[in-house]
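Running this now, will post back.
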Amino acid sequence: MTSTVCFVLEDDPSIIVCAFTVSNDSIRVYDLPRSRRDYMKHMTHKHMRRYPGVLVGRLAVNQDYSHKGIGSEVLLFIKQWFLSPDNKTGCRFVVVDAVNDPDVLEFYQKNGFVFLFTSEEQEFIYTGGKKGERVELDTRLMYFDLMDLSTSDANNNR
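Update: finished.
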């Protein structure tokens, strides 16, 4: 189940500027390599099997409006939306399954996302691949810790 959000031009609502979907998700800690698992436990101060998150899917910007910072603004909107007191999901992370393309991965990294797995080989095994098989990933799992945003917001308001 997903929710789709579209932003349209105020002057011409028939023109979609950008769109994205969100759905409930989680980061399954027990599937992570030990070093990442330990890091997640240390970072969250909780020992859970899954950490709740929101999955952003199908983020797209109309070609006529690309390379103008709209994608970054949308990601900031989503981050703030899930930190809002009105948000009742209780998620800690924003998760993306980003297309495995250098430009796309760089876009998410510039917006504070980090890889869930330190290597494509680790992620390949996590997704069902066998050690020793050729690694071919169409996407890479990345996440943003919402606590990073709330901490920076708190520091900016001092």
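Residues 154-158 have pLDDT under 50 and may be disordered. More later if anyone needs it.
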